[in-house]
Amino acid sequence: MAPPGPWLYDRDQLSDIPERLLAAEVVREQLYLQLRQELPYECAVETERWETKEDGSVIIGCVIYVKRQSQKGIVAGAEGTRIKSIGTKARLELEQMLGKRVHLLTFIKCRNWDEKPGLYRQMGLEFRA
């Protein structure tokens, strides 16, 4: 029922968030989809590296932060199969969204990220006490 208006963004633009944050959100989505009840809810994802190569592809390095050492095993899975599956599916989705070849590197680190408000801002999130 709303009248048509001008486009606020390019037709090809998928989102108004930066691509670095988009990459982290795609990885985080795969964490939720693949781990379900096993997911450590104290986890966060940050894009630490974004490098465009000469051939037009992009190297993206995402870090999954968990709160306890025991949670790293949940995210990694047996012999790294879960983190590999998360990375593969996230990479395929990112390639489709960005329209270019993506080399996705995923890492798991243990850090008490929720106790440090400055980390929220680094990840593109807003901290409110």
Automatic annotation (TrEMBL):
<dbReference type="GO" id="GO:0043024">
    <property type="term" value="F:ribosomal small subunit binding"/>
</dbReference>
<dbReference type="GO" id="GO:0005525">
    <property type="term" value="F:GTP binding"/>
</dbReference>
<dbReference type="InterPro" id="IPR005662">
    <property type="entry name" value="GTPase_Era-like"/>
</dbReference>
<feature type="domain" description="KH type-2">
    <location>
        <begin position="38"/>
        <end position="111"/>
    </location>
</feature>
<keyword id="KW-0694">RNA-binding</keyword>
<dbReference type="GO" id="GO:0019843">
    <property type="term" value="F:rRNA binding"/>
</dbReference>
<dbReference type="GO" id="GO:0000028">
    <property type="term" value="P:ribosomal small subunit assembly"/>
</dbReference>
<protein>
    <recommendedName>
        <fullName>KH type-2 domain-containing protein</fullName>
    </recommendedName>
</protein>
<dbReference type="GO" id="GO:0005829">
    <property type="term" value="C:cytosol"/>
</dbReference>
<dbReference type="InterPro" id="IPR004044">
    <property type="entry name" value="KH_dom_type_2"/>
</dbReference>
<dbReference type="Pfam" id="PF07650">
    <property type="entry name" value="KH_2"/>
</dbReference>
<dbReference type="InterPro" id="IPR009019">
    <property type="entry name" value="KH_sf_prok-type"/>
</dbReference>
<dbReference type="InterPro" id="IPR015946">
    <property type="entry name" value="KH_dom-like_a/b"/>
</dbReference>
